[in-house]
Design a protein that fits this description.
5-stranded mixed beta sheet, alpha+beta, single chain, 20 helices, about 30% helix, 6 domains
Length: about 700
């Protein structure tokens, strides 16, 4: 099977799979794929003529298309976040019904089990299965449940995915048709109960009735029925203060028998989890922080296929981008020795390079397109954005059972290995618990988040992927423990390798979505103004998508706020820069921006205040990311990083002016010479460009 990416506009691009039996258009004729051998595709036309074509030449044909297996592009998941929960649940229910009509099983062919007789594809035609589903929905009380409705919903699902099943109408308000006087009484009753011991919904209903009688007179406004009142309270009450919610108590659930997790091919089972790293780092505001580490572990090879460090809590966008990181080759960083490249790993490199040219400059780490991802029930992993990304890439999501740590035992054990093998050797190590913590751990923080991420990536490539693992055994060598890279090379012969190309538009679609109006000044987000000439014809106009308030869909990278991306009527995402982007010479996240706003009092008009914020952002990022050899050392090898020595402290005390100037070769007044302008190394902190990033792969 070969993956292809057509030469069409980025927004209309489609990921296609040319596999055995597929029909393709080539040179104006229809062909069927008879064989795929490396980069060569064997074609047979309707008259029996055969042709052998190189895959790049086939995909470059302007008329090339996969006739019978189109695949959807990366959908705009941000729109799914704006759908009310009730409508989202109804769309998911329609998805299960459609799958049962088409495959016989609500979860699809991989669900297992036996289809019900009325939905068995071997016994019933599609028309009969559609009619059976319409009759079933009518018995369940679904309105307008006819065979035509089922057929129309199937067509909308195949055309637009899950978003096509959402009703195309303006959502109603959260309280529905409830009387505004009743809503005000319920809110007042909840306010009076706040801070007191929790009662029951029945008691809250009586209190709301008393408030209505005191405000509008006895019998003027009727109290809703208990079921209607309870639904209204669920909408208005804070989840943590919901009346009648029982307190969490310890359960006596018996311990389940331990069953080891088995995976026989790379990507068959990938476990994802997040934890706090036992190391203090230098945050964007220059203060010590304890970062969060999110990793994806391939169970079959025990390879860390993706690892991301974040200063604050990991967001849903980070989890979605984690999928892209594990599916594309990891680049070999400049300065890494040659033996860390994939060409020197124990894998069939020549055959892999013939299938994917991106592997030529890749690091010696596996590239895995996951089939099933095991997650916990964290908010970031059950978000609509992450689940939609998994469905588009054909990834099955399997939540781990509650109170079952063995369900993700492999990734949990890997976190312990990272802390013992590398974290304890890094300056700022906190220890596994408070009793093992040093007296001044915060003062030992030496590495920024970018430096710590680079150190972790190099350690994974250098040490983890070449370290024998006792759980990795080959059937022909059962007594020898293999390394993750050796196990990956051994399994490639049985499972093969299918590259997954991603475009720049796909990376932009994975970014978080917000909705903002386009004013005469541009787009205003959190005291930042974004503007560009492409917004001129849309200023003051509502979005054609019909969003509430006429707001437009804006994609924002929370880790680099210097530009946003807006979806214009042409369907493409256009980059809109921050008006003060040229003043900030390093990537800046929302964390640093909030710190700057809290430290700088607002003064003058809006434009002057925003310019002051930009100048403060530039200064704080310069201090947080000093040049190598001045303030924070370059990442050291594991085992060599440590706290600053006494000689270094003495040298810093002898040269206070140099330390305060934050620059090399400063004069006695702390000023820089004209030839020594303070700026980051060229290319090190370049602006994030999704299309350039995609071209690298």
């Amino acid at each position: 099977m070969v993956s292809a990416h057509g030469g069409r506009p980025v927004a209309a691009a489609r990921h296609r799979q040319v596999k055995l039996g597929a029909y393709v258009m080539f040179e104006g004729r229809a062909w069927q794929v008879a064989a795929v051998a490396g980069a060569s595709v064997r074609l047979v036309d309707t008259r029996g003529q055969t042709a052998s074509v190189l895959a790049p030449f086939l995909f470059a044909d302007p008329a090339f298309a996969v006739v019978d297996s189109p695949a959807a592009a990366v959908p705009p998941w941000g729109l799914l976040e704006s759908v009310p929960e009730r409508e989202r649940e109804r769309a998911l229910a329609w998805q299960r019904h459609i799958r049962e009509v088409e495959t016989g099983l609500p979860g699809g062919p991989a669900d297992g089990g036996t289809p019900r007789p009325e939905y068995d594809p071997a016994r019933r035609s599609m028309a009969e299965r559609e009619q059976a589903k319409a009759d079933e929905l009518a018995r369940l009380g679904w309105p307008q449940a006819s065979r035509a409705t089922v057929r129309r919903m199937r067509a909308r699902y195949h055309a637009s995915g899950l978003m096509g099943l959402v009703p195309r109408r303006k959502p109603s308000r959260a309280t529905g048709r409830a009387d505004e006087r009743v809503v005000a009484a319920v809110l007042e009753a909840l306010r009076r109960q706040r801070g007191r011991s929790k009662g029951t919904l029945k008691g809250l209903r009586e209190l709301a009735g008393q408030i209505l009688a005191d405000t509008h007179g006895p019998g003027t406004v009727a109290v809703p029925a208990p079921s209607t009142f309870n639904r209204l309270v669920r909408v208005l009450a804070d989840p943590l203060e919901h009346p009648g919610r029982p307190a969490r108590t310890a359960t006596t659930t018996p311990v389940r028998p331990y069953t080891p997790t088995v995976a026989l091919r790379p990507g068959e089972l990938v476990q994802v989890d997040t934890t706090r790293l036992d190391v203090m780092a230098v945050g964007e505001d220059g203060k010590p922080v304890r970062p969060e580490l999110t990793i994806a572990l391939d169970v079959a090879t025990r390879s860390v296929v993706a690892a991301v460090l974040r200063e604050e809590g990991t967001k849903a966008a980070d989890a979605a981008l984690l999928l892209a990181e594990m599916a594309v080759p990891h680049p070999a960083r400049p300065g890494w020795p040659g033996h860390l490249r994939l060409a020197h790993a124990a894998v069939p490199y020549d055959r892999l390079l013939a299938l994917d040219a991106r592997l030529e400059s890749a690091a010696a780490r596996p590239v895995v397109v996951p089939e099933t991802i095991v997650i916990d029930r964290g908010a970031i992993f059950v978000s609509a954005a992450f689940l939609a990304a998994c469905e588009t890439l054909g990834v099955s999501v399997q939540p781990a059972p509650p109170r079952s740590p063995a369900a993700k035992g492999a990734v949990e054990r890997t976190f312990g290995s990272i802390n013992t093998l590398v974290a304890q050797h890094i300056a700022g190590y906190t220890g596994s618990h408070i009793l093992e913590r040093g007296e001044a751990v915060e003062d030992e923080a030496r590495f920024t988040m970018a430096q710590l991420q680079e150190l972790l990536d190099e350690w994974i490539t250098t040490r983890w992927q070449h370290r024998p693992h006792e759980g990795l055994r080959h059937p022909l060598l059962p007594k020898k423990a293999l390394t993750p890279n050796e196990m990956w090379g051994a399994l490639l012969g049985a499972s093969g390798y299918v590259p997954l190309p991603l475009t720049g538009a796909d990376y932009l679609e994975l970014l978080p979505v917000r909705f903002h109006p386009i004013t005469a000044r541009g787009i205003r987000i959190n005291y930042r103004t974004y503007d560009h000439a492409c917004l001129n014809e849309h200023r003051g106009r509502p979005s054609p998508t019909g969003q509430p308030g006429g707001k437009w869909e804006v994609h924002l990278n929370p880790h680099d706020v210097r530009q946003v991306y807006i979806r214009l009527p042409d369907g493409l995402l256009h980059e809109i820069p921050w008006i003060h982007r040229d003043h900030v010479h390093a990537p800046m996240g929302e964390t640093a921006w909030r710190h700057i706003r809290a430290a700088l009092n607002r003064r003058g008009d809006r434009e002057r205040h925003e310019a002051d914020l930009a100048e403060a952002a530039d200064q704080i990022l310069r201090r947080a990311r000093p040049l190598p050899g001045h303030g924070a050392p370059a990442p050291a090898a594991p085992g060599t990083a440590g706290p600053q020595t006494a000689d270094d402290d003495a040298e810093a005390e002898e040269s206070p002016d140099t330390a305060d100037s934050h620059a090399p070769d400063a004069d006695a007044d702390g000023n820089l010479a004209d030839s020594d302008e303070l700026s980051p190394p060229a290319g090190r902190y370049a602006l994030y460009n999704a299309f350039e990033e995609a071209e690298h792969w």
